[in-house]
Amino acid sequence: MPYHSPISPGLSWYEDTAGPRPEYPALDGDRQADVVIIGGGFTGLSAATHLAKAGTNVVLIEAHRFGDGASGRNGGQLGTGQRAWAEELEGELGFTRAKALFDLAEEAKAHLLEFSAANGIDIDYMPGQMSVAHKPRYVDDYKAHAEIMASRFNYPHVSFMDAQETAERLGSTHYHGGTRDIGTGHIHPLKLVIGTARVAAAAGAHIFENTQSTGITSQGGKVRVTTPRGTITAQKCLIAVNAYGGTLEPVSAAHIMPIGSFIGATVPLGADSPVIPGGESVDDSRFVVRYFRKSRDGRLLFGGREIYGVNDPKDIHIHIRRQITEIYPALKDVDITHGWGGYVGITVPRKPFVREVMPNVISMGGYSGHGVMLSNFFGKLYAETVAGNRDRLKLIEELKIPPFPGGRRFRTPLLFLALNWFALRDRI
């Protein structure tokens, strides 16, 4: 029987194709450490790796298996820059800060690819990403964006596509134009999780699966993290649970909301398929974004249905097939071999959340759909912070991230209403 994540719905194609997935022991007994990390996804494993390589005594615990959350189940797209376009950030924060945030994200992209290559992790990297407009009135914005990226942000890799070029590169006439970015690409995320865990363990990090945190306290210069079978006492703590924090820590929970996003994988479409002949990944202009790409073996991996809150969806295949058919009518009867989901963390302004939530305890998350690239790098920035250089992390910490309105009782229904309103606007 293939392994099935107990915290995320459906059986993912990634789990079936990632190759050997080593198991790590559960924590049994008390531990002393310099740093304790809660969460075994991209952020936590990256931080553990860089800390251990610097000689830090680090203990990482994961409630289930590494990659069971969004890190091992996401769309695999790297993107470029932050979640918002660079010119949008410039309008809000000014050019200097917007350029610094863009450059940080570009460094994150380079770091992910260099880290994977240097450590022999085959992440199935495929180059190229297209961003496409689902309404004609958005096309001029995409054209301007390509020009701004080259002229103001020194990024010449984005080119504008008119409707004809978009149709040719997508194999679909559903969209009206967009951009093509040859400076980024897409990956097999679970292979990156597995590889990073291997590197962390080899570097000397003490990493444990199936070990849930039952509480965090910070007092007298010591952080204590309790688990069912032992307490970890450390100088510092990183909370890297993102959408899966539950009631573990209230400040993070107030600022990071879980969103369920779901993906279907088709059978291989064949070498003669007109679907995305260049192999790029695709995201569209909907607020409830649709994102899709072809795998190395020619399957269409299509994501698009979102729910808000943490109730498992039913009939993933049915909803994903409906969205595939809107864009590719010829695939209305294609076999969908896998359907799965995972919960990503979003914030109100769709910017990352990094904050010291109690003395010596930093929480990271809320990547808002841009986490494949950013989360791995944020783990590195956390290791820099522990080593005494907090300057680059401060760039993220200083972003204004308000809590979701409504408190714990009402924030989920309020968000559900708001985001369904945006979903309705996508169709109008």
UniProtKB/TrEMBL annotation:
Domain of life: Bacteria
Statement: the UniProt record of this protein carries the keyword Oxidoreductase: yes
Signal peptide: none
Keywords, comma-separated and alphabetical: Oxidoreductase
Membrane-traversing stretches: none
Any one GO cellular component localisation term in the record: cytoplasm
Pfam families listed in its UniProt record: DAO
Domain FAD dependent oxidoreductase: 34-384
A molecular-function term among this protein's GO annotations: oxidoreductase activity
SUPFAM superfamilies, alphabetized: FAD/NAD(P)-binding domain
This protein's record includes keyword Oxidoreductase: yes
PANTHER family per the UniProt record, alphabetical: FAD DEPENDENT OXIDOREDUCTASE DOMAIN-CONTAINING PROTEIN (PTHR13847:SF281), SARCOSINE DEHYDROGENASE-RELATED (PTHR13847)
UniProt-recorded name of the protein: FAD-binding oxidoreductase
Record lineage: Bacteria, Pseudomonadati, Pseudomonadota, Alphaproteobacteria, Hyphomicrobiales
